[in-house]
Amino acid sequence: MPTGVYKRTEKMKKNISKGLIGRECKQETKDKIGKANRGRKRTQKQKDNVSIGTKIGMKKSGASKKISKTKKGVKLTQEHKDNIKTGMKKRKERDGYINSLEARKKLRKPKSKKGKRNIRLGAIQRIKNTKGQIQPNYNRKACVFFKMLNKKYNLKGFYAENKGEFYIKELGYFLDFYSKKYNLVIEWNEADHYNEKGNLNEEHRQRQCEIKRLLKCHFINIRQKAFNEERIFARIEKIIN
């Protein structure tokens, strides 16, 4: 039988390591390992390998599930929460998950009109793919009024409770009310659509401009707070006659 000192190749070391992952050691063996490693400084790579090995071992033995059950419903102190937060932050910094200052500035940078539209269209498509037909939130009070307009002027308009809101796929917008017959758009605006000065928000003004530019339509804004039925009737009559 050959004698002497043998050097293990990297492949051999990896195979031995894989074989030892999740293996239960006797308490005597654990004590010996602990004593040998006491005061020893590990490299970052060694720390990462130990962490991976621990995770795999816990998963195989089912220890992680046992810990989860024992910790379920336990209220953490503020100090404990802060320690967890600090630990997660350090881990992210170590693994390079935290964005640089330059990257954070880019993320905070206001998106262009095209960028906003692409984000909006992507979100709508993602919802359609996962949930099927998309149905935006709508105002029931507005639908009662739109129903009356259709009946009074025969507008044949689309709205949430009548064939669903008309969707402009080029812009990713749903219209509160749209009459193809008269190319008429009516938007019902709640209080949060206006700023402190009582003017329509920049976002909604931009939305209106994009819709008018694409459809070349008549556009009526209804402010819920200052709702005036007669004034709206007068505007519609001017458009259809």
Compact summary:
This protein has 241 residues and is mainly α. The protein is built from 10 helices and 5 strands, in the order ααααααααββββαβα.
Could you walk me through the main structural features you see in this protein, from its secondary elements to its overall organization?
By secondary structure, this protein is mainly alpha-helical. It has two domains: 10-95, no CATH class; 140-240, Endonuclease, Chain A, CATH 3.40.960. The protein has helices at 10-20, 27-37, 44-61, 63-71, 78-95, 101-108, 113-131, 140-153, 202-215, 229-240, and strands at 166-168, 173-175, 177-179, 184-189, 218-223. The longest helix is centred in the middle third of the chain and has 19 residues, at 113-131.
